[in-house]
Design brief:
Number of strands: 13
CATH topology of the largest domain: Cytidine Deaminase, domain 2
Number of domains: 2
Radius of gyration: 20 Å
CATH superfamily of the largest domain: Cytidine Deaminase, domain 2
Strand order of the largest sheet: 9-8-10-11-12-13
Oligomer: single chain
Mean pLDDT: 85
Structural class: alpha/beta
Number of helices: 7
CATH class of the largest domain: Alpha Beta
Low-confidence stretches: 108-126
């Protein structure tokens, strides 16, 4: 099975000094996700927790919403011509009675580590109606001081990043800012899918009282994944896209960007932010 990191020989130059040495790199391998034996998607990911990644992906596609909807998840033997198991093909089998979506070319997605939505036929194809809607009036009420602590807590949980410097991360926090779970992956969307897949397995969906923190920007895809899992708050250290903001406003999601120190921008869902001026009245 693929490892999380690999070693490669590099020429390291530091000023006038140069020497060959071994460097630790994050591993990147393709994962094919099958649904009831039929190919659905391919994503470039960091190997590890592949079953959670696959089921989390299916939550974001609107296929799954509860653990009992999954019969089993397996690696596919015979994935190569010689019958070997590469551990790069996962098949998710739905429980009896769970509707199987029409797997068409429109739904067949090729996902790269930089763009999780490449290959979608149209924007409408990714605006999947969530089975776990966010309650616009629900979710945690958060102070800026609490939000300011989250990037540091996420960074502290990035063990593989410390060794490679080449991974995105995502984490779930409770309403008090306590770290509940964290995941790393070469693709930011995969890190979120791993979190959502674990939550599905443990019967914790919807994530109605949780905060999702991501290490990079807040793309439309990440906002959609938050909405599909019932997450009320998405925070990112970098910028959101215009479409992510539109989606957040349409679905009652609080979207915080440029979360760095005590500075941040709230693009949607301001009602969940408890300002000092609010408490003064």
């Amino acid at each position: 099975m693929g490892r999380v990191t690999e070693r490669r020989r590099v020429l390291r130059i530091r000023g006038a000094a140069a020497a060959h040495r071994a460097d630790t790199l994050v591993a990147e391998e393709p994962l094919e996700i099958r649904l009831n034996g039929r190919a659905l998607a391919i994503t470039m990911r960091t190997p590890g927790d592949d079953f959670a990644l696959a089921t989390g992906f299916l939550v974001s596609e609107g296929v799954l919403a509860a653990a009992e909807e999954v019969a089993n998840v397996v690696y596919c033997a015979g994935a190569t011509a010689d019958g070997a198991n590469t551990y790069n093909v996962v098949d998710v089998r739905l429980a009896p009675g769970v509707p199987v979506p029409d797997i068409t070319l429109e739904r067949n997605v090729y996902t790269t580590s930089s763009c999780g939505l490449c290959g979608k036929a149209s924007l409408d194809a990714v605006r999947t109606a969530t089975r776990l809607p966010v309650d616009p009036a629900g979710g945690p009420r958060l102070t800026p001081a609490l939000l300011a602590q989250l990037p540091g807590r996420l960074r502290d949980a990035q063990a593989v990043f410390d060794r490679t410097g080449g991974l995105h991360a995502a984490a779930l926090f409770d309403a008090g800012g306590g770290l509940l779970d964290a995941a790393e992956d070469v693709g930011r969307h995969n890190a979120v899918d791993k979190l959502v897949g674990r939550a599905l397995r443990e019967g914790r969906l919807p994530l109605a009282d949780r905060i999702l923190m991501v290490s990079g920007r807040a793309s439309f895809e990440l906002a959609q994944k938050a909405v599909m899992a019932g997450v009320p708050v998405l925070a990112a250290v970098s910028a959101p896209s215009s479409l992510a903001v539109d989606l957040a406003r349409e679905n009652g999601l609080t979207l915080v960007g440029f979360l760095r120190g005590d500075s941040m921008n709230v693009y949607a869902g301001e009602g969940r932010i408890a300002l000092a001026s609010d408490r003064a009245h």
